[in-house]
Amino acid sequence: MSEAAAGKVVILIMLAIALWGLSTSIHKPHPMSQPLEPQETSKENKPMAGSDNQAPQVLRVPQDYTQIQAAIDAAPEGSTIFIGPGVYRERLVIRKSLTLLGEGAEQTVIDGSAVAASSKEKLALLVTLRIGGSLSEPGGRPLEVSIGRIAIIASQEKPPSSSNTINLNHAIYIASPTQVTLWSSQISGAFGVSMDSGTRLASWQNQISSSIVGISTGPGEPSTIFSDGDIIRPPGHHQGTGIKLSNTQAILSHATIEDTGVGILIVAGSQVKIERSTIQRNEVGIAVGGTMGGDASLDMSLSQVINNQTYGVALIQPPCFPNLLPEPEPGIPPPPPPSIQVFGGGNTITGNGKADFCPAYPGPPWPPLFVK
User: Fold this and answer.
1) Domain 3-30+55-324, CATH
2) Spatial contact of 253 and 229, defined as CB atoms under 8 Å apart
3) What pTM, to 2 d.p., does this model score?
């Protein structure tokens, strides 16, 4: 591999780690404590008084409410909102447990990008606390939000380096410890699904297109992700990070992650199980912990890591990425090496440009039967 190509890979890893650092600001509790700027509503779009005390209902858009946000505001806890075909140019805020169900991602589209261009908030859908609320519903149950068969669009534009949380282009931002189920949907934005600490995400059969990070978690309280059958692919070749996991317990099953800069980035206390998945055509397939990323563990079985431009699976440390080694300070002993544990077996890891493994396989930390 040429010196220029090697330099590009180091830059990609440093950018991915920088995004991990940026997540300490991205994933702080969202500053929004008031509703978004009011939108024009007709009489039928005004929320019903006292709806919080009602039993769950079934509401329909556009039959009952012409705007989705109006239906959300009116819906009692636990309600289901059916959203008919159409393009809804709205930014949505969800502060209660409910279900949003579309007619299919090709037919029901929530386009927050058109609204966000002239607004302070750059996200399409925010799941957060009710105003004046606590982290859970009455009775101690966490908020539960389910979203299915919908396309959710935010801008793919990369924010300037000085941007903070409210200036980032998120398709979905989960801003409080909440249980979110996302299925059979198409998610598009510079950031696909961004999660604060302590959040639980169940995601299956979704297509996520992101120029920066497809799915990301923040530091702090551990988060949990279960993903089955998701496809993560950026709009351009070798862009961003597919999945970035910080202090997260995750199971990724039957996933396809391709054409990103770093397919999966596992850092900072994360424990990740990958099974029957394909990570291909990225700059780097999987990058785990190491000097810049902290302790982490990877359990991977029956998966393919193939045809990535540089490494298939690599630790974020020398000799894999020598330029990431910090300069030693005189008189200060180096920190202890991070704990990196790798488990699993029966994988196909081949055809990667620079090396299938770094450090080399066989040898630690790779288990003897890690490849078939």
Assistant:
1) 2.160.20
2) yes
3) 0.84
